[in-house]
Amino acid sequence: MPNTQSRAGFTLIDTLVTVAVLAVIMAAAVPTVMNVTESMKLGQAQRDVEVELNSARLTAVSSNRPMRVRFNCPAAGQYRMVELIGSPSKPDANDSASDRCSATKYKLPANDRSPITRPNHDGPVRYLPTNVSFGGAPTLEFWPDGTVHKQVAGENPWTQADVTNGIDVAVAKGLTVKHIKVTGLGKIQLQ
After folding, report:
1. Could you tell me which residues come within 8 angstroms of residue 83 by beta carbon, excluding any fewer than 6 positions away?
2. How far apart are CA 35 and CA 46, in angstroms?
3. Domains detected in the chain
4. Which residues of 84-187 form beta strands (DSSP E)?
5. Is-contact 142 60, C-beta < 8 A?
6. SS3 assignment, position 142
7. CA dist., res. 30 & res. 35, Å (int)
8. Residue 2 pLDDT class (50, 70, 90 cuts)
């Protein structure tokens, strides 16, 4: 009588070899997955900063008040949209104080909404993800006409940014850098 049972299936050796090959492939893929994750964090930080810049421009135009976006304020890796105290030609001394980004002193929402007292339109302090930093981004000032200005040599009012080349706001994680270009006319682009 012939044996009618099939010998189909996997041996223990076949299974161990398969598991070992899969382990090697997965171990090789982990650094790639980690790099993708880190790149996604940097891209999200770039988009978050772009949103804050657009928000500052929109607030300046809609409230008819100059707005600034200050980087590394109040500490490295933090940024905040703040209303200019005073005017572009004659800013209040408090506007350049080291505590201008303080969420304790300059609360959100403002203590009152009186147009006589300033500031009324400061935003919250924002944070970059861990190990992401700004690459020398200057404070930008958005005027009610939508234009963008930066201080070049202590002058008041600040100089309008170049209409074509604009200002580069960089966010970096290690050697990877992402850029946001802001032109003097207020166009904000991810690069």
Report:
1. 59, 63, 65, 66, 67, 68, 118, 119, 120, 121, 122
2. 16
3. 15-190 (3.55.40.10)
4. 126-127, 133-134, 140-142, 148-150, 159-160, 167-173, 176-182
5. yes
6. strand
7. 9
8. low
